[in-house]
Amino acid sequence: MTSTPEVSAARLLEERGVTLISLDLDDTLLDSDALAEMRLHAAAEEARRRLPGSTSRIDLALREGLAANPVTVGRLGAFFATLELDSQSAEGVAVRAEYNRVLIDDLDWIEGAREVVLRLRERFTLAVVTNGPTEIQWPKLRKFDIGSLIDHIVVSGDLGLHKPDPGIFEHLLARAGVDASKAAHVGDSVHSDVAGARAAGMTSIWLPPRKREPDEVGEHVPDAVIERLEELLGE
């Protein structure tokens, strides 16, 4: 595993004259990982209601879903694959709906994240760049009125482009009228956030996940690593 740099993120932003900071949504601003187990248990209960007689297979699917990497595999994807359940079937649609209902109902900010956003917007143009379906990501954004705090919001489901594709970042930069050399992206995934931002020529800042094992850095070494969003403020 390639070592990560020990560079102050706030100092790096200043030295590079960064004017735009984009932020990942899930597990960077909003605490999605905190609900992972609750959501999968809710999906399993719905599966038991819809698929009587499949208890042992559902229990196995639940274990596989909980163990899955949420970025590269996806917890619900692993659940469906292990159960051999078609996500487009009536049963699959009902299970997914229950999984997503828990997310929207119980999701909250990561502690201190909203306050950091309020401070950052005094000094930077801010954006959110998030992977996910339109019908899932926008209800989260609306629930927390993020559109009133952030200058630009880019949802992968709206574009058909998903991190780490640099095109999703290039779309943001064109919309904001900012050169990549003056932009930074902050996120919890080396695979999606760091690799994508680097490919687009942006400064990449990694916030390792708190409630799951972080990705291996490998070749996608971030420009800076932070343990808390507050470190972006340099105070």
Summarize the structure.
The protein is α/β, with parallel strands linked by helices. It contains 10 helices and 6 strands.
Would you identify the regions where 5 or more consecutive residues have pLDDT less than 50? none
> Mean pLDDT score, rounded?
92
Q: Output the CATH homologous superfamily of the largest domain.
A: HAD superfamily/HAD-like
CATH architectural grouping of the largest domain: 3-Layer(aba) Sandwich
- The structural class is alpha/beta
Radius of gyration: 18 Å
Oligomer: single chain
H/E topology pattern: HEHHHHHEHEHHEHEE
What name does CATH use for the topology of the largest domain?
Answer: Rossmann fold
Supply the key terms.
2 domains, alpha/beta, single chain, 10 helices
Please characterize this protein's 3D structure.
The chain has 2 domains: 9-31 and 109-233, HAD superfamily/HAD-like (Rossmann fold, 3-Layer(aba) Sandwich); 34-106. It has 10 helices and 6 strands, in the order αβαααααβαβααβαββ. It has helices spanning 9-15, 36-50, 55-67, 75-83, 90-106, 113-120, 134-143, 156-159, 166-176, 190-199, and strands at residues 20-23, 125-130, 152-155, 183-187, 203-206, 224-225. Helix 10 links the parallel strand 4 and strand 5. Helix 2 runs antiparallel to helix 3, helix 2 runs antiparallel to helix 5 (90-106) and helix 3 (55-67) runs antiparallel to helix 4. The chain is elongated, with a radius of gyration of 18 Å.
